[in-house]
Amino acid sequence: MKTMNLSQLALVNPKRFPDPQADWRAAGALLIVKNTRVYESIETAVSQSVVVAATSVRTRHISWPTYTSEEFAQEILSNYDATQQVSILFGREDSGLTNEELQLCNVQVTIPSNPEYNSLNLAMAVQIIAYDLFKYSVLKDGSKKLGDLVEVVEQLATFTEVEAFYDHLWQVMQLIEFLDPDEPREAVVRLRRLFGRIRLEHTEVQILRGILSHFERALEYK
Q1: 8 A C-beta contact, residue 129 and residue 109
Q2: pLDDT score recorded for residue 142
Q3: DSSP-assigned states of every residue in 53-83
Q4: Coil, strand, or helix at residue 179?
Q5: 115: Cβ–Cβ under 8 A, 6 or more apart, which residues?
Q6: Residue 35: Cβ-neighbour burial (10 angstroms; 0-12, 13-18, 19+)
Q7: Could you tell me the maximum CA-CA distance found in the chain, to the nearest angstrom?
Q8: What is the pLDDT of residues 70-102, one digit of tens each?
Q9: Can you tell me the distance from the alpha carbon of 160 to that of 46, in angstroms, rounded to the nearest whole number?
Q10: d(CA 32, CA 8)
Q11: pTM of the model
C-alpha cells in the first residue's frame, strides 16, 4: 500500500490484530499497520463511502456493473476527488467474499487472468489493484495527484444514506404488496443493481425518501 501511495487500511473482524507478525512484515510501512482501523462489520467500515467496490471473479446470477482493475482506476480517478471516500473490499484468503457481502457493493472489480485458472492470493490482488490506482493517479509529468485530475462539485450520498434508502424502499414495497412472494429477493437485487449504476447524490436520496414517505402517508389515509 505504501509503495502505491495508499494509506487507509480497514480490517473487519480480523482473526489476530494487533499481531507482531504483521509488524515485522510491514518493514518500512509500519505506520500503515499502526493506523489500521478495525470494525465489527462491513457496513460500519464503509459507512461514509460513496463507492464500495467488491473484488471477485465470481459470476453473479444477475449481472452487475463490472470493471477490470485498470478500468476501475480510470473510472474512479475521472469521476471522484480526494474528499470522497471510495472503498475496495477484499475477501478472505481462502474463500473470498460471500454473496451477501457482494450485495453490499456498487460495482465489481476483476483482474484479467487465465479463465481456466484465475485464482490470485490476497496480497497479489491488493498489489495489482493498488498499482492500477497509482498509475492513473499521476499525470504523465508526475506533478499532479488525484485531487488535480477531477473537479466534482456535487455531494454524493454515502453508503449509509443509500442503505437507509434501500431499507425504506423495501418497507414500502412490502406495504403495497409489490414483492413476488415466491421470488422476493429477485426484485430487491435488481433494484440494488439499478441504483448502484447511478452516482446518487445526497439530495437525490432525500428526494426519493420523501416520495416514499408521501406514499406511506397516502396509504394511511386511504
Answers
A1: yes
A2: 52
A3: EEE--PPPSS---EEEHHHHHHHHHHH--TT
A4: coil
A5: none
A6: exposed
A7: 67
A8: 999 999 998 888 889 999 999 999 989 998 999
A9: 8
A10: 7
A11: 0.78
- DSSP state string for 37-52: EEESSHHHHTTT-SEE
Please write the tens of the pLDDT for every residue from 136-176: 987 433 544 544 444 444 689 999 999 999 999 999 998 88
Q: What is the per-residue pLDDT for 40?
A: 96
- Mean pLDDT (the chain) is 88
> Quick check: helix, strand or coil at residue 92?
strand
For residues 104 and 102, give the distance between their C-alpha atoms in angstroms, rounded to a whole number.
5
Phi-psi region of 27 (alpha: psi -120 to 50; beta: other; left: phi over 0): left
Contact 95, 119 (CB under 8 A): no
Euclidean distance between CA atoms 50 and 163, whole angstroms: 11
Give the type of residue at 67.
Y
Indicate if the pLDDT at residue 9 is higher than 80: yes
Rounded to 5 degrees, φ, ψ at 58 are -65, 135
Return the C-alpha cell found at 174: 412490502
Q: Return d(Cα 118, Cα 121) in angstroms, integer.
A: 10
Given a contact cutoff of 8 angstroms between Cβ atoms, the answer to whether 30 and 18 are in contact is: no
C-alpha cell at position 171? 418497507
Grid coordinates standing for 73? 482506476
Percent of the chain surpassing pLDDT 70: 91
